[in-house]
Amino acid sequence: MITIARIDERLIHGQVGYAWSVVYKSDAIMVIDNEISKDKFQISLLQMACPAGVKCFVCDEDKAVEMLNKYAKKKIFVVVKHPGTLLHIYEKGVKLEKINVGGLYFKEGRRQLSKTVYVDPEMEEIFRKLNSYGVALENRTTPTDTEEDLMKLM
C-alpha cells in the first residue's frame, strides 16, 4: 500500500527522510525516475539518504508498477520528481488516492502556485487529468503544514 505519494524534485533529503517518513511510517521509500534508475552513483546517494531501517528502492516507471503490485501489502512511501511519473503509474493500474505536491521549484516557464510549487502548462494538464480520475492533489511543504487543495491554487 502506498502510504504517501509525494512530488519533490529533491527526492530523498532530510525533510522526506525524516519528517515525512516519521508521519507516514513506511517499510520502504521508493524513488521512481526513469533516468536516475540507470545511474548507480545517484542510486547510492539516495540509498545513503534513506533513514536507517527503511528500505530504499530506485526504479523506473515500469518496474515501479511491477513492484508496487508485488508488494501491495507493504507500506511504501513513493517519491517522484515530476507529476507525469505518477500519471504513468496510475494509468498502468497503480491506485493513487492522494498525491502530495511539495517541491516543484522555480524554472523558466513555470508559474508560482505556492512557496515551493511552480508549474508549467504540461504539469497543470497532468494535474487536471489526475484530478479527473478522482485523485486528490494537496500542497504541503512539511507534514505539519495545513493541506491546501492544489486544484484551487491553479
TrEMBL record:
It is found in: Cytoplasm. Pfam families: PTSIIB_sorb. PROSITE patterns: PTS_EIIB_TYPE_4. Its EC number is 2.7.1.-. Its main location: cytoplasm. One of its GO terms (molecular function) is transferase activity. It comes from the Bacteria. Keywords: Cytoplasm, Kinase, Phosphotransferase system, Sugar transport, Transferase, Transport. Residues 1-154 form the PTS EIIB type-4 domain. InterPro entries: PTS_IIB_sorbose-sp (IPR004720), PTS_IIB_sorbose-sp_sf (IPR036667). This is PTS sugar transporter subunit IIB.
